[in-house]
Amino acid sequence: MPLLVVNAGSSSLKLSVLGPDDELLGGGRSGYGVGPLAASLGEQVEAVCAGAGRLFSANRQFDPVSSEREFTFLMADYVLAVLGRQLSGVVHEAAPRVGLHLRLVRESLTTEYGDLIRFIDGMVAPVSLVFKAPHIRSAELFHDRWVCIASPENRTLEAGAVSLDDLARCAWVAPYHQQGYSGVPISRQLRLLGIQPRIAVRVESYLSVPYFVVGTDRIALMQERLARQLADPMALGILEVPGEVGRITEALWWHERYEGDPAHAWVRERPIEAAGSC
Predict the structure, then answer these.
(1) Is the pLDDT of residue 225 over 90?
(2) Contacts of 246 (CB under 8 A, 6+ apart)
(3) What whole-number distance in Å separates Cα of residue 147 and Cα of residue 247?
């Protein structure tokens, strides 16, 4: 059964019939579902609604003790693993009734997220992305470095130290890897090392990587702070990366439109405070 849509224009009502081939709907044996266009619009609509909520809740005065305002941050699961506990603690201690909405990155962070930042309170992302826009502000949070993780069963790395030739022979687990796109941090590091990796497993998460390394001959690059958390419980080894690799600098990014909001000024200090103790 087709879906009837009423579009209220400025001077008349427009009726549209959405059939099974429409991009907003996906037809199937069990009926209609969300189509590709609707799916792609979902996250944008969520961000716009959240931005509107912040606009109407803005106030010249802000009392963290009594406020029930919710703040939204976007970050990768790696950052959440490193910073989450400390961030939760400093916010709860100073503002027990304030809400946090932590949105996880669903794909590799790109400069396109520079548009989304208008509708959220802040985003944690590597400085290497360089969001080139005059309206975006940032503050450094913490530094990290790249290491290799491997399973004891990996026969290629039995000697302990690894060479670039060793890495080139291994099968890789790579988060957010896209063929032909070098903007992903790990893909960029491999390119700097001169390695054309044979990707055996692609995952949309940093925390998922060790599960596909353990018990195999696969290898992965990982941020050292995260590797130290996960290596022992999963019986994985941490190895130095041969050659020159870039340092990781994670920063908090926000839109300048929120600079005059006392609540936003308060909340963007919380990740900075949390990073000081992690």
Answers:
(1) yes
(2) 128, 146, 188, 189, 192
(3) 11
